[in-house]
Amino acid sequence: MQNPEIDITNYLKENTPNMISEWLDSIYSMEKPYTSFIYAPLYKDELRADSKQTASLIIDFFSPDKEQFEISLTDWLNHMYERRMENEVPLPEVLMTLDKLRYQFLKWAGKFAIKTESFTKKDYYEIVHSINFAFDIINEKFADLYFTQIMRHLSAQQSMIEEISTPIISITDQIAILPLVGHVDDDRAKHLMETATARCSQLNIDYLCIDLSAITTFETTLVEMLFSLADVLKLLGIELVLSGITPQMAQQMVLLDTDIEIPAYHSLKEVLHEKV
């Protein structure tokens, strides 16, 4: 008799087309279809090809040559990740489809155990354990890769948002404007302070005008940041001026009781008229 693991490996290889057909049927018969279009019947051939690669990867796990499994796993991760991310497939849907294929492997392993008298309970236990272990590995590797790349993507988006939220625009060689929109919390105030200082130094300007006309809430955090920024810019030879100041804003700035004075104007037009 051959090694039980070799016997069932050959059996799973032979029945891979059957497993994949049943796997596809389970996907297309779901009451609530997946949200991603790659699971639509129109893309059945592509999905079948993906599942063949996944099934081949699982079968490679049973090979004595563990290096082959690692090579297959790397190829599988690269292909599956690129295709799923390119089409914005939600991670839960990826894991759910893998679990449906896991079910098929376990089901056909059970069929083999029933039809093969020499296949012991211990053999069956070990093959079930191996199938689950193999699927757990690829689930974990894929989820880890997905999470890592998503975090990089979010970080890049956050950097872009921060750049957009601090648009220092050079009007002339002497003056630049920074229009603030929305709410300024502690984190944004810190970012504004750092970005404005660095950018003004690069531009080599004489004046920075911060326009507050689109600010939704004028809180102590923003007021303190403005005074701190005015102090730092003064050391660089740059004067901070404000536009879009309302009477309520002016009152809050007075209440902070600081020796730093910041020229304030009702509108940006007034600033430009005086400074340009």
TrEMBL record:
Domain of life per record: Bacteria
Pfam families, per database record: STAS (PF01740)
InterPro entries in alphabetical order: Bact_StressResp_Reg, STAS_dom, STAS_dom_sf
Domain STAS: 165-275
PANTHER family: BLUE-LIGHT PHOTORECEPTOR, RSBT ANTAGONIST PROTEIN RSBS-RELATED
Protein name per Swiss-Prot or TrEMBL: STAS domain-containing protein
Native source species: Listeria fleischmannii 1991
